[in-house]
Description:
- By secondary structure, the chain is mainly β.
- The protein has one domain.
- The chain has two helices and ten strands; from the N terminus they run βββαββββαβββ.
- The protein has helices spanning 24-29, 80-90, and strands at 3-4, 10-14, 19-23, 35-41, 46-52, 61-63, 74-78, 98-106, 111-115, 120-123.
- Strands 1, 2, 3, 4, 5, 6, 7, 8, 9 and 10 form a ten-stranded antiparallel β-sheet that branches.
- The N and C termini lie far apart (39 Å).
Amino acid sequence: MTDSIQTGTIMSIDPKKHRIRIYKSTLHALGDPMYIQLLVSTTRRIVAVKCVDKVMSGDQSYRVNSEMLGPDNSCEIYSCSFIKELCSVVGGLEANGTYRMLGKIIETQRMAVFAMDTIQRVEN
């Protein structure tokens, strides 16, 4: 397995609704996991979506149900604390905007990594 940039490795951020969307294409590139974790490294300025096999007590994991994906084929996660942390690190994100982050799949670690410097506003 090698690390690779995948077309469609996208995550969107909606600060107003405290929503993170991870698209089906990204989940599929990760092997259609049952559970994921959202990770942030403020020093490396990256956000990661990591596959996990099971939920552990006290763990911040999210169940992915591919049959219940949103109307735009995305997994939606709502987290006020995650969005606030991301906004404080990135700076300049307006509450009324929606933003997209581009990433790459790291197959050896079963994760998608998104650099914060790829954030682009996509709508008002």
